[in-house]
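Q: Protein A?
A:
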Amino acid sequence: MARHGAEPLDTPLTAGGTTFPGRLLTEVPQAAVRVQAPADESGLPAVLARVREVVARGAEVVAVHDGAAFTRILVCEEIRLVHGRTAVLVDGDADPLTTVLSGRADAVVDGGIRGGR
């Protein structure tokens, strides 16, 4: 904390023209495009095609919801690591600190999908 000035989840995040005071969010950012994760790995090709589509249309922030916990993480990693966009994981069961520190997502919405489009 002394080196960076804040605890990891309290580190500000600027995404889609908005600055959030931390990485643990209470709702999906309004600027986020939602992508539904698949129930299992067999659905990943279609969802990753959807991610490519929304990124090509200019999405800066993508919120990943539903599906299986494992596929939500895989889709978030694709958004961050392949496309260089902000990934928001919507998952009330995820450990936000581990998710952010591991680089799996930029932010976590703790709970159901609210807000956004």
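Q: Protein B?
A:
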Amino acid sequence: MRVWSRGFMRRGTVGYSSTRHSIFILMLVCYLLSGCAGGVDPKTLDLFEEARRTFDAAYVMFEAEDALIEGRMSDGFIQQKLAGLKRKRPTVIFAHGCTGLGRGNLRYMRFLARAGYAVIAPDSFARRYRPETCDPSRHRGIKGAPHRRVSRMRQEEIHHAEYRVRRIRWVDRKNLFLAGHSQGGTAVAAYEGDEFSAHVISGSVCWRGVRMPIGTPALALYSKDDPWRRGRPADSCLRKARARGVNMAFHLFEGRAHNLSRNEKARRLILDFLNRHRRTE
């Protein structure tokens, strides 16, 4: 049984067109030439407030009363269900890809929730200034997009989410994990904090580097012919981890699947990895 609340909209997994790409280019030109950014000047925005918005709009999944509950963190229905949780739960902060919370991200979240984890995915696009950075139809980033700035945003979102979840009574703070897919996986690999028991990276070549603490275990999953790879070594994450001395388990799958959430072996590897690093005391 699955129960969910209203108000969820997916970005980018269906209906993404060249029109949206063109709109972004026009917005970028407007920003560069006149300082406007959809009516918002990013220089005036409060970073903490913007990160707070991404957590308040986070998509949440967990099991309660033999049902899978899912919806936005700020929804009244979800708040009511969360208030009724009694036991502490291992919790995964999940970083979505460059187009937002799409179907593949939700599949990752659902199998984790069904395995007993509470999963919280901050919505990066809840920010008032959040440019598009990728074109899924061409499997590449948008030329001229503020990639570095968005990378910093994703780090802020993870840091703020960790800050918030540690103040939630039903979160098992001894078992807090960080996972992400695609751009979210890149953000997870680059996150330097030591607050998490382990990191899981999906569909990323870790192009912003592997910066997690050396003592934090990591798992990375990638497909040999992933169309987003664009000439980079398929095992880039593992190479970068080894160069820093990070303990990373890496699994390369045959095929071109960018998202491996449908792959039974990938799901089993992720769950085994998380369960292995859960603390019982």
